[in-house]
Amino acid sequence: MKKILIPLLFSFLAFILDSAFAQKQINLNLPWKFIQGDNPVYASPGYDDSAWKTIAVDKIWESQGYDPYDGYAWFRVKVVIPSALKSNASLKDSLRIYLGKINNYDQAFLNGQLFGINGNNATPEMAKDSAFIQAPMNFWDKKRPYTLAVNDPRIHWDQENAIAVRVFDQGGQGGMYTGDQSIMMTCLGDYLAIENNLAPYVFSQGKLQKVVGLKNNSVFYHLNGIFRMIAVNKLTGQTVFTKDEKVNLDPGERKESTVELKQIDQSVLITYRFEFQDTGETVSVSDETPYITTPTPPDKPRINGPSVTAARPGKPFLYAVPATGLRPMAFEAINLPEGLILDKQTGIISGKVSIKGNYQVTLKAKNSKGEFTRELTISIGDRICLTPPMGWNSWNCWGLAVDEQKVISSARTYREKGLANHGWTYVNIDDGWEIPGDKNPKRDTAGNILTNDKFPDMKRLGDSIHKFGLKFGIYSSPGPLTCGGYTASYQHEIQDAHSFASWGIDYLKYDWCSYEQIAKDTSLAERKKPYFAMRGALNTIDRDIVYSLCQYGMSKVWQWGDEVGGNLWRTTEDITDTWESLREIGFSQVGNAPFAKPGNWNDPDMLIVGWVGWGPSLHPTRLTPDEQYTHISLWCMLSAPLLIGCDLERLDAFTLNLLANDEVIALDQDPLGKQAVPVIKEGDIQVWVKDLSDGAKAVGIFNLGKNTVKYSLDLEKAGIKPGGQVRDLWRQKTLETTGKILVTDIPSHGVSLLKIKQR
Ligand code: GAL
């Protein structure tokens, strides 16, 4: 007996010792204890939380039985922090407690002492400061890596430690949700920043260039090693470029390296890897190169944009004929209904039509290279917004830092960069134009809504936007305060609607946020009430205002958004510029499809291409080029409102190519107004199909996986008759017609977007 036991015992001990020594990280993606509400005693290590519920920290609390809950809640977990973590580490100075991302704000306590606030290390004294809930709202997307010196008395080495996290959710999704929470020692790699997303690639004479920064963020360590760049063709897997550089960075030092590649018709995956000379540790990040597919529009005139536009009888009408081609261009409009006039030089049609009807107008555009003719239906009736609105909104770039100058320069760039020629129309200010509420709304003595200093004259701003032939949008909330804490429309709906009308507003995004405190309960009637109230107010003014509801899809808004008079409604929480966010939101727009129709659109939130950042400092989108093709393709397939969310002044060639493809935009603007539905899901591939007004089908083959896929689409299985002409919409090329099977290579996170004529 003994003979067998002893070797067994040895190997068991060896296993334990081995795993203790090898341990470099403690996984905190465990069941945590959870309670709603707020009480400072919850931070205390000895607090008895045994009666609390358990909660997972890899998903928001709404999906774990707490829907809808906004406000305070606490998470607690107990873990032993073994000193083996220190002995195994190459650097022995600091411990990192990583809490993932938290929706929206947090204060984190270790053994009763505060150590972190909203992603920044904190001293216990800061625990009394309640300002942590006033940080910018997109803090839900910020990582929380908190570090403590190894000799910090808040850490109890080799003993149980209580971690308590006080969370405040100010609206929408809540809690700890990323599932990557952990404890580990900091390492050399933590001090190295590989800055590959400071600026996008620049196209120059058939080449692509980008400057990558290497920054030593330590004030103490020298970072020495080899910096390697490896570029691999995403479709073929072939390595197209490698470069090794020996790099020594003194504390605080920053160096730059340039990547230069030949421009090709697809993305190249570039991995930047730093191998530390002393420890062998590596840090790597990657990005993918942009490629342009949209052909430059011809010099000859071409009229783009939707084939239908609408206004209510007797309400101001404004429509700028969107046309590409050389300027000067002369416009003509035959059969314009009475009350409308055309400016022949600018192509802007304006006026008022008092009699209901569908007016068929023939538009002509002429320049030195030729002439183009197209039909436009002007629908004068009760329904407006017959195709999804296309425009720009300030939120995803400037957040609350928006000002008049930024709005007016966006409008100007619309024209200068030619976006207006493709049908982009609205220029919308989001939150941040009103007077900050400071807990209470502030109005003038007559109760009129006031603008803050950044918007000295809304009427003047509206006039200048209209002069460009563009339309003007604004934002408000049904509660006393907006989501950003500014004065909102509660109990002033009619007065505000009149102010909006006097400024020339054409579009209102109407949020929810502080109405949560006004609503009596979460019943459907209470959810509808504030939207009916503003609808009633909008009905009293002499302008058409597109009415956009922004309550994140609560109570299946798509089922009643039309009833409360909405033209579009947000179906989800806020989007951010990551693949995870795009995938979650975009590919879940399924059940709401039957509710999309001319005048009513499901809104999966604004676009996240170009320079974004929720203000004031911006960065190039973190989506890869293939992810951006997927984003625009999917939104167009979904008949989603298209609201550009980037700084238009920094629009680069790649982003412009995404936003100026008329055949892709035509899917979105198709007058039939059908939202695409998924028809095939096979592994990482999803095939979505959209019916079009000309009888053709649009097909999006999306690859959600990490590798390129050669996919054979069985057309019949997708509900499409084989043998029809196939058009690659991004490249605007007609492909050979195939038989029953259509074979395409689709890069990871990329798309093949086709239009197939039905015989
Ligand atoms: C959020 C909304 C955002 C933005 C923000 C402004 O609720 O989802 O799109 O409008 O409010 O505070």
How would you summarize the topology of this molecule?
Layout: H1 2-22, E1 25-27, E2 32-36, E3 53-55, E4 71-80, H2 84-88, E5 94-103, E6 105-110, E7 113-117, E8 120-121, E9 143-149, E10 160-169, E11 175-176, E12 182-185, E13 192-195, E14 202-204, E15 207-216, E16 223-233, E17 239-249, E18 254-262, E19 268-276, E20 282-288, E21 302-303, E22 308-311, E23 317-320, E24 323-324, E25 330-334, E26 340-343, E27 348-351, E28 357-367, E29 370-380, E30 390-393, H3 395-398, H4 404-416, E31 426-428, H5 458-467, E32 471-476, H6 493-503, E33 507-510, H7 524-538, E34 546-549, E35 568-570, H8 579-586, E36 601-603, E37 611-612, E38 619-620, H9 625-637, E39 642-644, H10 653-659, H11 662-668, E40 677-682, E41 685-691, E42 697-703, E43 709-714, E44 726-728, E45 733-735, E46 741-746, E47 751-756
Parallel strand pairs: 22-29, 30-31, 30-39, 31-32, 32-33, 33-34, 34-35, 35-36
Antiparallel strand pairs: 1-12, 2-3, 2-4, 4-10, 5-9, 5-11, 5-12, 6-7, 6-10, 7-8, 13-15, 14-15, 15-18, 16-17, 16-19, 19-20, 21-24, 23-27, 25-28, 26-27, 28-29, 37-38, 40-41, 41-42, 42-47, 43-46, 44-45, 44-47
The structure holds beta-D-galactopyranose (GAL).
